[in-house]
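USER: For my understanding, would you kindly supply a protein sequence with its structure tokens?

ASSISTANT:
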Amino acid sequence: MKGWITGLCCVLAFFLFFSCGSEKKAEETAVDLPQIQERKELVVLTVNSSVSYFHYRGEPMGFQYELAQQFAKSLGLDLKVKVVKDEEQLVSSLLKGEGDLVAYNLIITNPLKDSLIYCGEEDITRQVIIQRRGKKALKDVTELVGKKVYVNSGKYRTRLENLNRELGGGIDICEISSDSVSSEDLITWVAEGRIDYTVATDEIARINRTYYPVLDINLAISFDQRSSWAVRKTSPLLAEAADKWHRENINSPEFRASARRYFELAKRPAHGAILSVKDGKISHYDDLFRRYAKEIGWDWRLLASLAYTESNFNPNVVSWAGAKGLMQLMPATARAMGVPPGKEQDPEESIKAAVKYIAGMQRTFSKITDKEEQAKFILAAYNSGIGHVTDAMALAEKYGRNRYIWEHHVAHFMLLKSNKEYYQDPVCKNGYARGSDTYEFVHEILARAELYRKKIKK
């Protein structure tokens, strides 16, 4: 009897301790705008994606990230970003008090309204068919019967299966292994004509259309879903501030500029020859390429090929991401390389700074002793940022390939950096990247440099 009473007391003590701990945790997570303003920092939770948050050329970017930046600035707060794995973890991390606000289009559901306050701009999302533009583009979901649609497993396949049942069958659903091909890879395949149809959310589709204008994204295959930012129930003042900021700023120049940057501006400007290679001249800046290429031991024609890909030899161009000048240096990189303020579009300053930047990367990749091989890694890092290349090197090593060889080794994993299973691997420190862009960037520059070498003497 005495033992039973002792055991009961232990159980009661355990629940009392657990209950007190829960109350204490609830108090700790009851953080609202005044407490956030006191610590002078807004902590936002998000996930890596081409829409929400990613690193490009060493700088944080993403539509939701930029909006969170603007919101934090309006409150006089610094912004701290915490990246989590997925939507489920966004909610759990928020409820644990690991962040103040979800800066991501979180699907609005009735069950979550018990613990969250949805706030900010309410966005409407839907799944759409990605196809090429033209007379043969499908206009109605019934036309999908008899067509092959390529998707990864998950929500896109589930929606297609439901649609197929609604139509009485006939859609040929082709599942692609998600560990080798991402949804964005499938969109690229559609643009290139390798497949005819795939599926994505309209938000992802709109971003990819800025890379591939040939895409038609008008055929919806799902009902509209509402989504928005979110905070805990214990943060009503923060929710009110987010609502007010979105209401007052949705038509502001800063908000519009961010929306235009991600959803409207072409990510791949058209290129055209300026001077005829047949005349023995690549550009108006050949003498500068010759002079500064010597400082890094590069063939000047490789440096010229890099400049052509970056700017089409136009020193006045500004990219969608804010890179400027002949060599398209990001603002932070230009400053770090000593470009004087206001001189970002001066051709010589741009080339000089790019060469200084490349020299630094030569030190970073010094273990790659073959200079031609090293140049491939440097070009990749110039395009996407050093962090994404070192991630791909780490993946190559983890999966038994050579971290110091580009083609078929590191390049293979750079191509997989848009796939969640790889960019969320513990060895990756820099998250999502459009690895296919980087792969093509390296290939195109090397091929053009070889053409220049054949046509133009040193």
